[in-house]
Write a structure and sequence with these properties.
Globin-like; 127 residues; mainly alpha; 7 helices
Length: 127
């Protein structure tokens, strides 16, 4: 049996990424800082997140195949992302990881990369 080589494989591949996205977005929609910057119909956002996280974790390049280079910061510039919102986003993701059982070294590596990305998205100060 081959050993899992990517973080995507190590956390459980497509099924685990899908479960994470499904656990994450209800938290986002319920969060008072995050809800205002997300659309009412969250399904398209969820699908993009699934495609992105698959690629971000070393799985197939689904996001790039469908939308081109992720250009995360540029794609997020239209939205007011503050340090508090970045932290709220990370908290929602951490709780979603708890729910779907992403643990150990894989979680540390994955979450560490998300922390860097979330802080890179900040484009204005808190009020």
């Amino acid at each position: 049996m081959e050993e899992a080589t990517t973080l995507y494989e190590k956390i459980g591949g497509a099924d685990r990424v899908r479960a994470l996205v499904e656990a994450f977005y209800p938290r986002v929609q319920a969060h008072p800082l995050l809800k205002p910057i997300f659309p009412e119909d969250i399904r398209p956002v969820m699908e993009k997140q699934y495609l992105f996280l698959t690629q971000f974790l070393g799985g197939p390049p689904l996001y790039t195949e469908k939308y081109g280079h992720p250009m995360l910061r540029a794609r997020h510039l239209p939205f007011p992302i503050t340090p508090a919102r970045a932290e709220a986003w990370l908290d929602c993701m951490s709780r979603a990881m708890d729910e779907v059982g992403i643990t150990g070294q894989e979680r540390e590596l994955f979450f560490g990369r998300l922390v860097i990305a979330a802080h890179h998205m900040v484009n204005q100060e808190d009020d």
